[in-house]
Structure formats: structure tokens, C-alpha cells
Amino acid sequence: MAGLQPLIVPLLLFSTALSVGLIVVARQSREESGVREFTFLMLAAAIWSGGHALQFAAGDLTWMLLWRTVGYVGHNLVPVGFLVFMLTYTGYSEWVTRRTVALLAAEPLFVAVVLTPTNPLHNLIYAEVGVEQVGSLAVLARSFGPWYWVNTTYNYLLVTAGLVLCLRMALGSRQHYRRQGTALLAGAVPAFAANIAWVLGLTPVDYTPLTLGFLGLVWSIALFRYRLLDLVPVARDTVLDNIRDGYMVLDDQFRIVDLNPAARDVLDDPDDALGQPVVEAFPACADLFDRGDSGTEIRDEIVVEDGDSKRYFDAELTTLRDARITGRLLLLRDITGRRSIEQWYRTLTERSTDIVTVTDAEGRISYQSPSAERVLGYDAADLVGTPLVELVHPDDRMAVQERFPDWGSTEEAAVEYRVEAADGTWRWIESRGRNLLDDPTVGGIVVNSREITERKHHEQDLERKNDRLDRFATLVSHDLRNPLTVIDGRLQIAKETGDPEHFAAISSAVERMERLIDDMLTLARQGAVVGDPAAVDPVPIVQDAWAHTGTESATIRLEPLPDTVVADPDRLRELFENLFRNAVEHGGPTVTVAVGSVEGHADAAGTPPGTTGLYVADDGPGLPDDADVFAHGFTTSDGGTGFGLSIVADIVDAHGWSITGTEADELGGARFEISDIETEPGSAATGDAPNPESEPSQSG
Q1: Hey, which of 148, 192, 256, 406 would disulfide with 144, CB 3.0 to 4.6 Å?
Q2: Which range, of 4-18, 146-160, 365-379, 479-493, averages the lowest pLDDT?
Q3: 626 and 611 Cβ atoms separated by less than 8 Å
Q4: Domains within the chain, CATH numbers bracketed
Q5: C-beta of residue 419 within 8 angstroms of C-beta of residue 429
Q6: 682: alpha, beta or left? (left if phi > 0; alpha if psi -120 to 50)
Q7: Is the four-CA dihedral 310, 312, 318, 324 of positive or negative sign?
Q8: Per-residue pLDDT tens for 53-112?
Q9: Measured between alpha carbons, how far is 306 from 668 in angstroms, rounded to an integer?
Q10: Closest C-alpha to 525, from 481, 574, 460
């Protein structure tokens, strides 16, 4: 040790600087566990080393005693700081309170601050004080007073307690913490041994402050290599390493300090997980920690990507309640199997073409399957809380409300009704309900619905076809039988009398049969169907229809018509032909027919109308009172078929228009008005000039 004497002052200053540097590095950890205690210990070491260096550099007894007194403050606080740090580091931080620290430091501070400066008055610390030369170094020569031994014994007890705690932690911990504990012991034991050697008189100089530099070096390794302050141990005995569920023990800054194999299995890089913030090592749990503070118990589901598949965990974050614990515990329960089964059923429900609805006992929707969006256009979440009956067509609500009590029974019941889709259209739905109110898993009435709109349309088409077949049967059995009877009777009379006038009646009956057959074929082939409507000029269609009416003496008068109307041109021509033929049949061969437009009305904003109307009027006998002239088979003419106006009504319905029959004020006969005809913008009738493409009137 004699070789160190010339270097002892620089080495003590280096030890002081190293302790201060460790304080700066430790404070960068801010409020992490052990930082304050470590700072306190290093500050005491710096005071001891610095005071000792200045004592050796002074050379004068007065200054040497002054710096010795300063260094003695650090000398007495190092044991206190060492024990306090070890209490925190080994998990007994609840014992580290202001009161505890004050009690531990009371005797050392009293000695350093009171007894040492006033020693000449009582000699309790040093019996004699002087200066002696040890080689090239001037040191204080002194003999100890009675209280010095009391103080030294107390300090040794504090240091011994800290070493025991550190040794227990090192022997009872996993490899990472064992390395930490070994580093702490490697730095502390030499300093303790050096002080014992000096107290026992084995060394002429107290090398303890110098060994504090060695302690700083070793603890620097622990600080940077083994992350001393980042990994303050948390008691491991509160959890079991062999449990099936994964767990991670976290410190109060949510960094991983321990984890079991099940938890390691979910991390991408488990070997480097210790000491990392849990949200960096295990990003899937980030939302869990955003939901509450560190003292809150939180539970949530976590999804972890595992290659092309996913793993699901029921995660629970709790505060460890053991007396020695300062951290949190993250438990991970693997529920992938359960979620796979749930996902399988959910996929079946979501991908099904059927709509699954769950209502409460009052019929209010509590769950709506996503298929509602595909079938009806509604977002499933928007329907929750809506009474099911509010979606039903007003005409069908009574049937649904009457059937709903049956859904409340344990037996399934089916009902067909219309539901309004998100686009405002009505869709036919067939629903079956089953009461599962008593089932704790469901707790509601489950309604399985299937769209049957297309099937209902087929049924309606079939009904219309059957109706036409009934009319055809009536036509064949009744209307065609009459002219056949006339033909048969007239032929018998013509054979007997040879009068040629009977042949004229036969010819008339044959013509009537031809008209009946033509009308029957029209209804059978086309029914109430139109092709793709298009914007067409109505004037040529009216003129063409008039030319095919078959009369030479009748007169048509064209009033102003819209430039275009949206219609199937062939069916529109057929409509006019039947109206013209009806006028000739009832008004005679010299009837006058007028065709014009009925003006629409502008809306409240003054926008020109997009729809208009057409009329066909004649100067014939008019319409009979209280008669449905559009009914199949209705006619007031002996030569009429009763199907002309019926065909007109079918064409109007197929276009979505409306038709009414009234008295023609100007001509005095019948007037048929067709409304709700769509026109292109700017095509409304002028109403004040004839159509330039036709004469004001013309004869057949």
C-alpha cells in the first residue's frame, strides 16, 4: 500500500468525481425505483472521498481537522445510505420512509455534526489528535474516544444488514438478479474490509474512501451492464413459474422484471425483454395500459399476430399486494381455442344470407346480424334499440303484432311481411322466431329472417297469369260462344231459305271473333309488361296509331303535346290504338277524337315540372255512370270485346302511370286522362300552339 501514498490524493479525487458522475447518470432515470436511495449513497461517498482528499492535501493540523470533520459526515452517512438502498433494491421499500431514514441517520449525524466538531471539549470521539508523517504523506495521528467505538459498531451493524440482504437476494434470485447482487457485493465488501483493517490498526492510512472509487467502478458495471436501477427486483414468490398462463412482473414504471415461459412464448424477442417497457416488448398490450393508472385493475382482450394466424388472450393487470412488492402483475390467459369456436359461429352468422335478430320481450332489437346490411342496407349497429315492428310495412304490422306472442312461446312460428329497406324500397321477409329469454347465453327472442322478395314477385306474377287464364277461359267459354251461335243459326236459316242477308250477319260474327282473338293474344303475350322505357316523341306514335284504327270518316285533332315522354314506344302506340278504337266503336264512324297534354305544376321552389299528362277525348256518348270501364270484359257496345280499355289500364300500370275516365267538357263525350308521365327537362307542353309536326286536325 506504500506505493499508493503518493497517488492517494488524485485517486481520492477520482473516486469523488466517479461518485458524482454516477449521481448524474442515476438522476437521468428520474423517479424510477432506487434512484433517490442510490443518489443518497453516492453523495455520502463523494463527501467522504472529497473530504479525505482535501485532508491529505492540507498539511496543516487545523485544516486537516476541518476537512476530516466534513469527510466524517459522508463517513457516517454511507452506512445509512447503503442499508436504505439495499432495502429498496431487495423489495423492502415499504420500510424506507422518512421516519425510518431519520431514525437510522440520527446517531451518525449527531456524531458527525455535533460530537466531532466539539471533540476538544469532551474527547468522546478522539482522545488525542496530532500529525504524523507516513512516508511522503502527512496523516492525523489520533487515539479513539469511547463514543467512536459506539458509532463504529452501529455503522458496522448497518453495513452488515445491507450485505446480508444483498447476499440473500443474490443467492435466491434468477441468473440476471444474481449477477446484479454479485456486482453490488463485489463493490461493497472491499470497502467494508478496508475500513475494518484501518480501525484494527492494520494499515497506517484509512483506505476506505479510496475503495469507494472501486465500489463506484464495480457499481458502474452493474448500472450499465446489468441495468442495476432499471431492474430493481420484485418478489418472485407471489407467482409460480410453472403455471399454464403467462405472467409478466413489472416494476412501477411498467418495465418487465420477470416473466415465465408461457409469457416468453408470446414475445418476439424474449431474451432482451427484461428491463424493457412492456409496451415495447409486447406492443399488443398498449391499449391495456392506456385505460387506467398503475393502481387500477384492468381486464381486456389482447390479439397477438402469430404468422398467418392470431392468438387471443384474456389479459389482466393488477397491483401486487405482497408487503415486499412494488410492481404490477400482467396475467395472460390463452383463449384462442374458445375464440376460434366463437369466430366460427360468428362467421356463419355474418356470412349467412339469413338475417338473425334478437329482441327483448317487448320486441325491441338487442342484436342484429351484419347480414342486415347486405340484405336491407342497414348498418347492424344502427338497428339496435329499434322496435322491430317499426320496420314493417303499415299494412303488415297487424299480422306481425298478432304473431309476435307466438314468437314468445317455445315453438317456432313463421310469418311473411314487408320490411322497409334503407333505400326506401319494400322487401318481403319470411321470419321464424323462437323464445330464448330464459337462456342465459341469449336472453332474448331469436328471429331468423330470409328475404323472399323474388319469390313473392314470382307468386304475384303467377297470380296475374292465372287471372289472365281465367279471363281467357271466360272469353273462350262465353264471348266466343255467342258469335259461334250466331254463325250456326244463320247458316241453318240460309240453308233453308237461301236468303243472302244471313251471310252478312255471319261475316259480322266472324269479324267479332277475330277482334276477340286479337285482344286475347295481346293479353296473353304481353300482359302488364313493358320493355325499356326511353324518351320518345309522342306525335309520330299518335299519328301511326290513328292510321291503324281502320276508319276513314273519323277525325283526329292534335293539340300541343310534350316534345318527349319516357315510355315503351310499342306499348304507347298500342295504348292509343285501343283508345281510338274505343272512341270509334262507341261514337260511330264520324267521331271526332282530340289528343293533347295536361300540364303539370311547378313545385314550391318554382322548378318546372318533370312530369305531365296526356288526354284522349271524343264527342261520343260519354261514359256510363258508376261503371268500371277498365274492367276486363266490360263493354256497352254490341260489337265490343270488353278488352280494349282493360289493355289500356294494363299498359298504364306497367309504366307506373295513372288513368281516369271523365266527361269531355269541350266535345261532350268521354275523356281519358293519363297522368304521372315522366318527361325530360324542358319538354313540358306549351299549351298555346299546335305541334309543328302535325296539322291542327286531320281525318282518318
Answers
A1: 148
A2: 479-493
A3: no
A4: 2-224 (1.20.1070.10), 246-340 (3.30.450.20), 352-451 (3.30.450.20), 457-525 (1.10.287), 530-699 (3.30.565.10)
A5: yes
A6: left
A7: negative
A8: 888 787 777 888 888 888 888 888 989 988 888 887 777 777 888 888 899 999 999 988
A9: 87
A10: 574
Q: Is 427 left (phi over 0), alpha (psi -120 to 50) or beta?
A: beta
Question: Are 51 and 74 in contact, with CB atoms under 8 Å apart?
Answer: yes
Comparing 192-201, 263-272, 487-496, the range with the smallest average pLDDT is 487-496
Is pLDDT at 614 greater than 90 in this prediction? yes
Bridge partner list, 659? 674
- Eight-class DSSP state of 594: E
Pairing verdict, β 413-420 and 426-436? antiparallel
Length of the chain: 700
**pLDDT-above-90 percentage for the chain:** 6
Cβ atoms 620, 594 nearer than 8 A? no
Q: In the 3-class helix/strand/coil scheme, how is 302-364 assigned residue by residue?
A: EEEEECCEEEEEEEEEEECCCCCCCCEEEEEEECHHHHHHHHHHHHHHHHCCCEEEEECCCCE
Q: How many CB atoms lie within 10 A of CB 427?
A: 21
- Name 611's bridge partners: 678
Q: Which three cell numbers stand for residue 408?
A: 314468445
| Calpha distance 593→590 (Å, rounded) | 10
Helices 208-224 and 61-89 sit at what angle, rounded to 10 degrees?
30
Q: How far is 114 from 132, CA to CA, in rounded Å?
A: 26
Q: Which of 367, 363, 407 is nearest to 388 (CA)?
A: 363
Cα(39)–Cα(275) distance, integer angstroms: 20
Cα–Cα distance list, 557 to 184, 560, 642, 699 (Å):
117, 10, 26, 8
Kindly state the cell numbers that stand for 314.
Answer: 384474456
SS3 133: strand
In the chain, what is the straight-line distance between the N-terminal and C-terminal CA atoms, in Å?
A: 142
In sequence order, the 6+-apart residues with CB closer than 8 A to the CB of 406 are 413, 433
